[in-house]
Amino acid sequence: MRIQHAEYRTTIPQVAPQSIQICPHCSLSIRGAVLFFLSLCGVSLGFAGFMAYRGFWPVLPFAGLEMAFLGWALMVSMARRHHWETITVTEADVSVELHDRQHSVQHVFPRHWAQVKLRRPASRLHPSRLLIESHGRQCELGSFLTEAERSGLALQLQRLIGRINESPSLV
User: What Cα–Cα distance (Å) separates residue 45 from each residue in 30, 33, 38?
Assistant: First the structure.
């Protein structure tokens, strides 16, 4: 007598992961930043040169320092263009990828235990903080967003992730 083993396969419909990508709004182009910087340098250093010619030479180094600081601030502002965050929600987990020009960091949380929290600021002048937390770990999202954008993202993530012990359908 021969026994055959039947092979049973069940197919669970795979739901496509939901992905959200956020990045800072940087409307100033590189060309615009260079033109802005050169025009301010021309005005500031031109005025400082005129004042130095009239005998007020201490103005010149301060104008140079002012333009150096402005150049540094523009460079930092332009570097924000290369920051973005990607939140991917699957049936099993929530993945948060933080990117900038040199680094990429990924945080993965089990979806069933993940919590989305919008923490109020300690002071009225500080922004709120949007966090995804699970098992004592947390990841801050959207630090560059406005309050309204951060609140909207929190609501969207709460609908996708659900409350603790709850995993709503991604369909």
Answer: 22, 18, 10
